[in-house]
């Protein structure tokens, strides 16, 4: 888990393109959001730390049920989804009583074009607009790309969880 961004203000992503095709998702986009969450879940499965993260986020629910549960837990008005067009990435941000949190996923075929950092920047800005003074984001063990994106935004690692299984 990483802490951030720093108290110096908005996240700073150098070299992030300004004009990537992003838009806030609407209720009509729910099938697209569910599909992207499903694709992200499939990409996490089997990766170091991925199965544990999926279990904590989805449990035994499908992505649609998990999104509904998140909205019920924190109120739909406090869940913010931004899509990268053409439906190949998303950021999902939500608030809790303690901190804001967000997750970003971009299809592997659309990576290295600036969508991930811009989606993260959009999520962070929304969380700050909601009054979040602490924001959490996750990067799986060995996911240097996501760790680098978050560190460029001012996040600092604050916790490493290790597990030993029987």
Could you please describe the fold and organization of this structure?
The protein has a single domain (18-134), classed as Gcn5-related N-acetyltransferase (GNAT) (Aminopeptidase, 3-Layer(aba) Sandwich). It has helices at residues 30-44, 50-58, 63-74, 115-129, 144-152; strands spanning 2-4, 22-24, 79-84, 89-95, 100-106, 135-137, 156-157. The radius of gyration is 15 Å and the shape is globular. The model is unreliable at 1-10 (pLDDT under 50). It starts with a strand and ends in a 9-residue tail after the last strand. Helix content is 36%, strand content 19%. Strand 4 and strand 5 form a beta hairpin. With 166 residues, the chain is α+β, with helices and mostly antiparallel strands. The protein contains five helices and seven strands. A seven-stranded mixed β-sheet has the order 2-3-4-5-6-1-7, sandwiched between helices.
Write the layout of secondary structure elements.
Blueprint: E1 2-4, E2 22-24, H1 30-44, H2 50-58, H3 63-74, E3 79-84, E4 89-95, E5 100-106, H4 115-129, E6 135-137, H5 144-152, E7 156-157
Offer a concise description of the structure:
It contains five helices and seven strands. The protein is of the alpha+beta class and 166 residues long. The two termini are 24 Å apart.
What is the CATH architecture term?
3-Layer(aba) Sandwich
Strand composition percent:
15-25%
Low-confidence stretches: 1-10
The neighbouring-strand order within the major sheet is: 2-3-4-5-6-1-7
Give the mean pLDDT: 80
Distance between the termini: 24 Å
Going by helix content, strand content and strand pairing, the class is alpha+beta
Biggest sheet record: 7 strands, mixed
Q: How much is the radius of gyration in Å? A: 15 Å
* Number of helical regions: 5
Find the count of extended strands (DSSP E, 2+ residues): 7
The top level CATH class name: Alpha Beta
Give the helix level as a range of percent. Answer: 25-40%
Shape: globular
Q: Briefly note the CATH topology name.
A: Aminopeptidase
The CATH H-level superfamily is Gcn5-related N-acetyltransferase (GNAT)
Number of domains: 1
Provide the succession of SSEs: EEHHHEEEHEHE
